[in-house]
């Protein structure tokens, strides 16, 4: 089962949940404060598949949806 990463908008912490793809966009409760104001972040699975040399040629993060990218820090 894939691991998804979520970020809590209440306490700002990120946490990981193991769930099926079907459940990926369902609300995830924060494991720290139990808030349901959480957002799914791109999983590490995808960033590992990117070619680092081609990604560094352009300075933008193509996989980032803005605001919640921990790798390029928009
Ligand atoms: Zn929280």
Structure commentary:
This protein is α+β, with helices and mostly antiparallel strands. It has helices at about 45-50, 50-55, and strands spanning about 5-10, 15-20, 40. A three-stranded antiparallel sheet has the order 2-1-3, with no helix packed on it. A hairpin with a 5-residue loop joins strand 1 and strand 2. It has two helices and three strands; from the N terminus they run E-E-E-H-H. The radius of gyration is 13 Å and the shape is globular. The mean pLDDT is about 80.
Tally of helical segments:
2
Range of helix content: 10-25%
Q: Which small-molecule species are bound to the chains here?
A: zinc ion
Instruction: Report on the biggest sheet.
Output: 3 strands, antiparallel
Rg over alpha carbons: 13 Å
Low-confidence stretches: none
> What separation lies between the terminal Cα atoms?
30 Å
The secondary structure category is alpha+beta
Strand order of the largest sheet: 2-1-3
Approximate shape: globular
Average pLDDT = 78
What is the ordering of alpha helices and beta strands? EEEHH
Number of strands: 3
% residues in beta strands: 15-25%
Q: Key terms for this structure?
A:
3-stranded antiparallel beta sheet; 2 helices; globular; 16% helix; alpha+beta; binds zinc ion; 74 residues; 3 strands
Please specify the SSE layout and strand pairing.
Elements: E1 3-8, E2 14-18, E3 38-41, H1 44-49, H2 52-57
Antiparallel strand pairs: 1-2, 1-3
């Amino acid at each position: 089962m894939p691991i998804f990463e979520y970020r809590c908008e209440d306490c700002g912490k990120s946490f990981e949940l193991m769930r099926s793809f079907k459940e990926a966009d369902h609300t995830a409760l924060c494991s720290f404060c139990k808030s349901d104001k959480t957002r799914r972040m791109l999983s590490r699975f995808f960033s590992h598949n990117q070619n680092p040399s081609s990604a560094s040629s352009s300075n933008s993060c193509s996989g980032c949806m803005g605001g919640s990218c921990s790798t390029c820090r928009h």
